[in-house]
């Protein structure tokens, strides 16, 4: 019997979905953040790894389908780090980002935050981000731990400073009514988190602006190291990290401000927090794959827009570069 068209011929290490279209990237990242892989048993993981090894060495058992091979690769990529071959701690896997990150988002959006609670939730959020970033880092080249610490401290200081500063400004604004003040405070986490994300990108990858990043021709050959391509990569990554927290931290306050006026929640105040949790979970689940699908992992740029020495080193009209990890959350 013919296999469904959604399971193309298997390619080891390649994405199942086409990466040149937004829809293809969206489906690819839906696979990556699929929380069902968190419940894969140790025996199922071993089966998946063994199946991929059999494929690699040409010793596949008869009757193995493309669907089974794609499923095995999805399981392995969700759990095993590609460079270290070690299991990634469950809360720091990409598939664990939404379920483990949602309680933090709920905490960030709690009304009537005190100074201490604002600092705590912003710190916890950036700490979670830092752990996810480190757990999913590119480990092919040794990177000093000091760089991660620098990025983490910069993100924490930026997020806490802006969140606390904006809260103080709102509290001291006499022209706002208490209801308006509460509504505005609910939107404070977004600028704080967005600025922290940009700060993290700049601190973690500023050396790329000096040294450049590799650009490759259509055959995958390295043409040279481009600072212009590095600038484009950083801008794309920063844009992704500004867009990502927008629906997560802006939509829930808007939805909750409407829902809290309904008779259902007015008569049942204990339901406010669970409902907010569900709203945050839905916003998170939609926003994460949408935001990280904005730009392809391997971005294309015209050779004529790069440094003259790179343009002269190839006959290709366009080259590609790896924009780097951009799927950090809020």
TrEMBL record:
The keyword Cell wall biogenesis/degradation does not apply. It is found in: Mitochondrion membrane. Signal peptide: none annotated. The chain crosses the membrane at residues 151-170, 238-259, 271-295. GO terms for biological process: amino acid transport; mitochondrial transmembrane transport; positive regulation of cold-induced thermogenesis. GO terms for molecular function: citrate transmembrane transporter activity; monoatomic ion transmembrane transporter activity. GO terms for cellular component: mitochondrial inner membrane. Keywords: Amino-acid transport, Membrane, Mitochondrion, Transmembrane, Transmembrane helix, Transport. The keyword Hydrolase does not apply. It is a multi-pass membrane protein. It comes from the Eukaryota. Its main location: mitochondrion. It holds the Pfam family SFXNs. InterPro entries: Mtc. Belongs to the sideroflexin family. PANTHER family: SIDEROFLEXIN, SIDEROFLEXIN-5. This is Sidoreflexin. It comes from Gopherus evgoodei (Goodes thornscrub tortoise). The lineage of its organism: Eukaryota, Metazoa, Chordata, Craniata, Vertebrata.
